[in-house]
Amino acid sequence: MTLPLFLDTSPAVSRRIVHLDLKGVPPTFPRLLDLLTLFKRMHFTAVMMEWEDCFPWTINTRLRAPYAYTPD
Fold first, then answer.
1. Is the pTM of the predicted complex or chain greater than 0.70?
2. Quick one: which of 49, 47, 45, 44 has its CA closest to 2?
């Protein structure tokens, strides 16, 4: 269900930005893709993601949490 607030494709402001903070309980990768689809339907123009410990570090894997996304 889309909220009425997001039905207008010409928003009153030029940018609609959603902030995803992945710290704590990050969404699974399939759920993250579902969220991006939802944000598109809601006419968001940008997504700001805070990866923090979920970032798939490859240079120094000590920085990567056990539940971090993988490079794949």
1. no
2. 44
